[in-house]
Design goal:
Blueprint (H helix, E strand, L loop, with lengths): L20 E4 L1 H9 L3 E17 L12 E14 L5 E5 L7 E4 L4 E4 L11 H12 L8 H16 L4 E4 L4 H14 L3 E7 L7 H9 L5 E6 L1 H8 L5 H23 L4 E3 L4 H7 L24 E3 L7 H10 L4 H4 L19 H20 L8 E15 L2 E14 L7 E2 L4 H14 L3 E6 L13
Parallel strand pairs: 1-6, 7-8, 7-10, 8-9, 10-11, 13-15
Antiparallel strand pairs: 2-3, 2-4, 4-5, 5-6, 12-13, 13-14
Helix pairs in contact: 3-4, 3-9, 4-9, 6-7, 11-12
Length: 453
């Protein structure tokens, strides 16, 4: 049997407990391996949306057509099914793309139903939950909020916690959960690291300084820019920013007194992309893989760690947060540091802030802001020749990015009308110094990520 040395595994007895099991991608391969089937390196890898031919007589695919577009992302494949399993799906390059042992309620699928690029993927999961497991849909997102608040009360008790607040939906929801759990024992720290969008620091302060939470704004612009001076490698940027955030929080905690807990708005895509164990790391999120080895807190609390972005927004609405905050444009913790390709300077930050402001303003004016899930500008490190008036220019190329997604694990580029793109390009080139070329990124995720770095 083919299996990577050190690959994650489970006790084979899990398949003898009489409980339904659905193996997804590696999960299907692991199930196959443990139950006597064969997994081998594929002669041709499958990445991206792939047509899967399915047996819709299976409970897993009830209500589906015989062909379905699904997201594949694998280099290994099942070549021989385990005993008593039957094939319920295949592709042109993968003869066993889905399998089942109906009697034991064991199922495996090589593709990913949990992402947007799999058509009706959530219905496959729904079929497993309802048709195979026999569950009922009585759970509500409000239950998550209630249970989480209760658990936080029990965990922290009379202790104090410090929340890393960025003003984005993730950290705002995390802060609200903690506030309801421990009240005044929570202090929210907003770090202005100088890498925010235009006017953003003042806007965040305006929102939270008038709320019931203890809010502190820390001006750390100079220390972050000094640490990042001359750094060009994106992973190094993230790690520097991740560590510096922690050091600021530690310093602020000492001013408050004894603070045992640091609260972060980490969500599941952050964890997945940062890599765990031998899993592939796509990029280290500053709040996961970018954390330093030593953190001077008793524990890091991440109440949203198992949720996707759309689920976090549902929790925010359940908690009564205003819609403009819940649906605020996502912004990475490292900020513009990972939207400036190459080294970071104050001049580049200003250039990008102005260009990004125009891009976001015009998207809103065109009425597209609620249809596009994330949109931003990237200052590339490439310069090209241009002409303005009768003079030659040699300035930066700016990239515009806009994607549509619900879970942020996969995304399609947004098909923005040409007239909007033309207007934005013209305004940026004419109003922002040192940009003479604007391009639009039409790459989906995968193969790209949403952010450029």
């Amino acid at each position: 049997m083919y299996m990577l040395t050190g690959a994650p595994t489970v006790d084979k007895k899990i398949f003898e407990l009489g409980i339904p099991v659905l193996g997804i991608c590696y999960g299907m391969q692991l199930m196959t391996n443990l139950l006597g089937g064969v997994v081998e390196r594929a002669g041709k890898r499958e990445y991206g949306t792939t047509k899967v031919y399915i047996d819709n007589n299976s409970k897993l695919f009830k209500g589906f057509l015989e062909e379905n577009d699904c997201l594949m992302s694998h280099t290994d494949k099942v070549t021989i099914l385990p005993q008593d399993f039957k094939n319920i799906g295949y592709t042109d390059n993968c003869q066993n793309a889905a399998m089942e042992n109906e009697a034991k309620k064991l199922y495996g699928i090589q593709f990913h139903p949990e992402v947007n690029h799999t058509y009706r993927g959530t219905e496959i999961i729904r079929n497993f939950v309802y048709q195979v497991c026999g569950c009922k849909g009585s759970w509500k997102m409000s239950s998550f909020a209630e249970n989480t608040i209760k658990e936080l009360k029990e965990k922290i008790g009379d202790g104090k916690a410090l929340c890393a607040l960025s003003g984005g939906v993730d950290s705002s929801v995390a802060a609200t959960l903690l506030s309801k759990a421990i009240g005044k024992n929570l202090t929210c720290i907003f770090v202005d690291h100088g890498l925010l969008r235009k006017n953003e620091a003042d806007e965040v302060e305006a929102v939270f300084s008038n709320s019931e939470v203890n809010f502190i704004r820390v001006d750390a612009r100079r220390r972050f820019l000094d640490k990042l001076a001359g750094v060009t490698e994106p992973e190094q940027k993230r790690k520097i920013i991740g560590e510096e955030f922690i050091r600021v929080f530690e310093e602020e905690a000492k001013k408050i007194g004894t603070v045992d807990y640091l609260v972060q708005g980490t969500i599941y895509p952050d964890v997945i992309e940062s890599g765990t164990g031998i899993g592939n790391k796509i990029k280290s999120h500053h709040n996961v893989g970018g954390l330093p080895d030593y953190v001077d807190f008793k524990e890091i609390v991440e109440p949203l760690r198992d949720l996707f972005k759309d689920e976090v927004r549902q929790v925010g609405l359940e908690l009564g947060l205003p819609e403009y905050l819940v649906f605020r444009q996502p912004f990475p913790g490292p900020g513009l540091a990972i939207r400036i390709i190459g080294d970071i300077t104050e001049e580049k930050i200003t250039i990008l802030q102005e260009a990004d402001f125009i891009w976001r303003s015009e998207i809103a004016k065109a009425g597209l802001d609620r249809n596009i899930n994330q949109y931003f500008a990237v200052l590339t490190n490439m310069r090209s020749v241009g002409v303005m008036g009768d003079e030659r220019t040699y300035d930066y190329c700016l990239a515009l990015r806009a994607v549509e997604t619900s879970d942020f694990m996969t995304a399609n580029f947004s098909k923005i009308p040409y007239e909007v793109l033309e207007k934005v390009s013209s305004k940026i080139v004419n109003e922002v110094k040192h940009i003479n070329r604007v391009v639009y990124d039409i790459t989906c995720k995968p193969p790209a990520t949403i952010e450029w770095e």
